[in-house]
Design goal:
By secondary structure, the protein is an alpha+beta fold. Helix content is 18%, strand content 40%. The protein is built from one helix and seven strands; from the N terminus they run E-E-E-E-E-H-E-E. The chain has a four-stranded mixed beta sheet with strand order 2-1-6-7, with helices on one face. A three-stranded antiparallel beta sheet has the order 3-4-5, with helices on one face. A hairpin with a 2-residue loop joins strand 1 and strand 2.
Length: 110
């Protein structure tokens, strides 16, 4: 058991199996910052908002570089969770000071 089919990513109100994610890209329009996910079986992309009101670790708005880092961190979190041999839920979280990070929780702990 294990693998990407046992890993779920929280995308707004949706839960998406990690093995259905085809692509993660950075999307910036004006001050709006988000990650765009192309998902198998969905005509329209899904969006994970990292809105500009969330400040970075130094109080700056979220930059495109930080968005790219978050995209890479999501891919790494999926790979790590898939190798663990048990189901996981991955979600974008804030530390309350504006810094954003991915959290991965084993499904057995939920």
């Amino acid at each position: 058991m294990g693998g990407k089919s046992d890993v779920w990513v929280v995308v707004g109100e949706h839960r998406v199996r990690a093995d259905t994610i085809q692509r993660v890209t950075v999307h910036t329009v004006g001050n709006a910052r988000s990650l765009e996910l192309k998902v198998t079986g969905s005509r329209e992309p899904l969006w994970i908002s990292v809105a500009s009101q969330y400040a970075g670790s130094y109080g700056d708005s979220v930059t495109e570089e930080r968005l790219a880092e978050l995209a890479d961190e999501l891919v790494r979190a999926i790979e790590t969770a898939a190798r663990s041999g048990q189901g996981h839920r991955i979600a974008l979280d804030s530390d309350g000071r504006g810094s954003r990070r991915w959290i991965s929780e084993a499904l057995t702990t939920l």
